[in-house]
Every structure is written in structure tokens, then in C-alpha cells.
Design goal:
Order of helices and strands: EEHEEHHHEEEH
Distance between the termini: 67 Å
Helix content: 25-40%
Largest sheet: 4 strands, antiparallel
Shape: elongated
Mean pLDDT: 91
Structural class: alpha+beta
Number of helices: 5
Number of strands: 7
Radius of gyration: 22 Å
Strand content: 25-35%
Length: 196
């Protein structure tokens, strides 16, 4: 049995930087030699990393060199649990394997930094939508995905995480811009247009 713990850190400096934890439990086993090369190609296509060159393959066995060598292992997943400030929840293995990246995952850090440092007016309008008790404290952007914006409220007694959901999931920057304007209560939901 093996337990893999993944930690999701906030992209902005916060008092408590952890946003969530994921625990993946399963059985760890060595990849069969006949599968290693194809699996390395698959991994390298998604996540190229020089460390992959140090994995022992049927074509390359360890010699007397000083470079470290690695064995490729596979985790056969038995269970997954995701936990954040709202609690812990199991995720089925099928759901995990079928999941696709959020459309904003590659941009999330830069979008949150931009919101936090360049748009205090937008941030203030969004924070005004939070329940009154949660507005007492230092409010910082915590996360952004297709479903909404999350904030961390750093209070005197404790921290609270809260989500402002979009009215519907968004898939691109145009949809994100519109969803943010809706959350702000902006009368120009579709942006400004020239009269013609």
C-alpha cells in the first residue's frame, strides 16, 4: 500500500498558503520492462522532464556511472480524497481518470496576481458581495476556476475560505470577463460597445 499526498498552494502569499490537499491511496508496483518505453513516451509528451532520462529501461541498464538511476513505478489507485476549508470529499477513480484540466489552470496564478495588484476596485466590488461577517478581515483572492472565484478572509480569530460562484460555468476569457462583471453587479455585462 502507498499513500500519495498532493498539496495545492495558493499563488499569492497568504498567512496559510495551503488551499487543499489530495490523498491518493493504492498499490505501488514496478512497471513491467516491456511497458517502460511506451509509458515514458506518454509521460514525456505531457510532462517533459530531464529526470525521465535517468529511468532504467530494457535498453539502458545501470552502469558504473555516478549519475543516479531510477525505477519507474505505477500506482494502482484504490481511493482518492480531496480536502479543503469546506471539508473532505471522496472522488471516484473513474471521475479522476475522466477529469480534464480547468480552462484557467495555466493562467490562474497570473490572473489572481493581476486582480490582487492591479484591480483593487474590482476586488472591492467582489468582496462587497461576500456575507457581511466575512468582510471583516483581510480579503485576498485564493482561487479561480470555471465555476467561480474563491477568496481567503484572514480574520483576527481564524481564516475563512469563501466562493463566489458564476451563474454558469465559463470556458474562455470572454466568458470569464463577463462572469466577473456579473458578480460585480456591473450594468455593462457585455462590455462597452460603440454606438453605430
Amino acid at each position: 500500500q502507498a499513500l500519495l499526498e498532493l498539496t495545492d498552494y495558493a499563488p499569492l502569499p497568504l498567512r496559510e498558503p495551503v488551499r487543499s490537499l489530495v490523498w491518493v491511496r493504492g498499490r505501488l508496483q514496478e512497471v513491467h520492462p516491456t511497458e517502460i518505453l511506451d509509458l515514458l513516451d506518454l509521460i514525456a509528451a505531457e510532462c517533459p522532464n530531464p529526470a525521465l532520462l535517468g529511468i532504467d529501461t530494457p535498453r539502458c541498464r545501470p552502469g558504473g556511472g555516478d549519475e543516479p538511476r531510477y525505477t519507474l513505478l505505477r500506482l494502482e489507485i484504490a481511493s482518492v480524497v480531496v480536502t479543503d476549508a469546506t471539508g473532505a470529499e471522496p472522488v471516484s477513480v473513474a471521475d479522476l481518470l475522466n477529469a480534464r484540466p480547468d480552462p484557467f489552470c495555466a493562467l490562474e496564478s497570473s490572473l489572481l496576481w493581476h486582480l490582487d495588484t492591479a484591480h483593487s476596485d474590482v476586488l472591492a466590488r467582489l468582496v462587497s458581495r461576500l456575507p457581511a461577517p466575512l468582510r471583516r478581515g483581510h480579503v485576498r483572492p485564493l482561487g479561480l476556476d470555471r465555476y467561480g472565484v474563491r477568496f481567503r478572509v484572514e480574520g483576527d480569530d481564524r481564516d475563512h475560505d469563501v466562493r463566489l460562484p458564476f451563474h454558469k460555468p465559463v470556458d474562455d476569457m470572454t466568458g470569464l470577463s463577463q462572469a466577473i462583471r456579473v458578480l460585480m453587479g456591473c450594468p455593462f455585462i457585455n462590455g462597452l460597445r460603440a454606438r453605430g
